[in-house]
UniProtKB/TrEMBL annotation:
Residues 44-318 form the Imelysin-like domain. It is found in: Cell envelope. Pfam families: Peptidase_M75. Keywords: Signal. This is Iron-regulated protein A. InterPro entries: Imelysin-like (IPR018976), Imelysin-like_IPPA (IPR034984), Imelysin_sf (IPR038352). Residues 18-37 are annotated as: Disordered. One of its GO terms (cellular component) is cell envelope. It comes from Vibrio ishigakensis.
Length: 339
């Protein structure tokens, strides 16, 4: 009996010691993209890779804000911009993954025509700047992502309250980025037929182009009467840089395995080459270091922004109209914008 009790006790102790270890291993085990033979596999793996980069960048941002918000705010701001650029590769267009699509507003709230983010952040700062993560997650999505962090880091002089709230918001963003990647552990398009996948893919590309166009058309507003505060990242002055990252990500998407270039080349090699060269030229001449917010308020800067919008609209025409017609696909409207 004593031996039995001792054996049971030993097992219990060993189990208690090993459980946390096992749990930790599960949490830290590297997640990998599902392997399939579906024609969407190349695009899926691209999305999964970009989601992993976004998660890693969000983690670095959280560390910088936690450790250097007051002591080295430039480091926190620099990492915010880098994280924003990684998000650009995922931004725009529903991917028909409900969990991932639902998270996009928690990552970024734009357009924000009524400054909803600012008003809600001011309210939290005045009442509970040390809000904990669990309570923050029960608040509006506008308080939990990159848009909120831009406001906290750039809107006014950083102080202890702003840094405390920014630390919590950054932690929420880390969780959101992890959930986004988790939703892509399996290929969401593997059940689609070839025709269904091609339509889904082209709709995704079209939505991304529509969003890029909107990023310029909103601040351009009426001819000669810009609305610079409608620029995507006017506080941090990286709106043009965001669009540059969008364009680079679009180039990756078009050249992915079984992407648009693969689909179009056998049917119309001339059009395929034209799209590739138009996009390449647009990327090469993009004013990524300029401030859209500042330049659009000048006559020359307004003309520059208008010419960039024309470049994107040309890409939209080549892809949404000519390429879609060549592939026999009708691109439907699928807006993810609000406000």
């Amino acid at each position: 009996m004593n031996k039995s009790l001792i054996a049971m006790f030993t097992v219990a102790v060993l189990s208690g010691c090993s459980s946390p270890q096992t749990e930790q291993t599960d949490k830290t085990a590297p997640a990998t993209a599902e392997k399939t033979q579906h024609p969407s596999q190349g695009v899926y793996e691209l999305y999964f890779t970009n989601a992993t980069k976004f998660e890693n960048s969000a983690q670095l941002l959280s560390q910088q804000i936690t450790n250097k918000c007051l002591s080295d705010p430039l480091a926190a701001k620099t990492q915010w911009s880098e994280t924003m650029q990684t998000w650009m590769s995922l931004q725009g267009g529903n991917i028909n993954v409900p969990q991932a699509d639902a998270l996009t507003w928690k990552v970024q709230f734009w357009p924000d025509k009524k400054d909803t983010t600012g008003r809600q952040l001011k309210s939290v700062l005045s009442t509970n700047p040390n809000i904990n993560l669990a309570d923050l997650k029960n608040q509006s999505a506008t308080l939990q992502g990159l848009t909120a962090l831009e406001w906290l880091l750039y809107e006014a002089q950083l102080d202890q309250d702003r840094c405390s709230l920014a630390t919590t918001v950054a932690s929420s963003l880390v969780d959101t980025s992890a959930s986004y990647k988790q939703s892509l552990l399996t290929n969401p398009w593997k059940g689609l037929s070839q025709a269904q996948w091609e339509k889904q893919y082209l709709s995704l590309v079209s939505d991304k182009l529509d969003r890029m166009s909107k990023k310029l058309s909103l601040p351009l507003a009426n001819l000669g009467n810009p609305r610079p505060y409608f620029a995507e990242s006017w506080r941090s002055q990286v709106s043009y840089q965001n669009l540059y990252s969008n364009l680079v990500a679009l180039d990756d998407l078009l050249h992915a395995d079984n992407g648009l270039m693969t689909l179009l080349e056998p049917k119309d090699p001339r059009l395929s080459t034209l799209i590739a060269s138009t996009l390449s030229d647009t990327i090469a001449t993009w004013p990524k270091k300029d401030s859209l917010f500042e330049s659009i308020q000048t006559k020359q800067g307004y003309k520059l922004a208008l010419s960039q919008l024309n470049k994107i609209d040309q890409l939209k025409y080549l892809i949404n109209e000519q390429a879609a017609q060549e592939l026999g696909i009708v691109v439907g409207f699928n807006s993810t914008d609000g406000d």
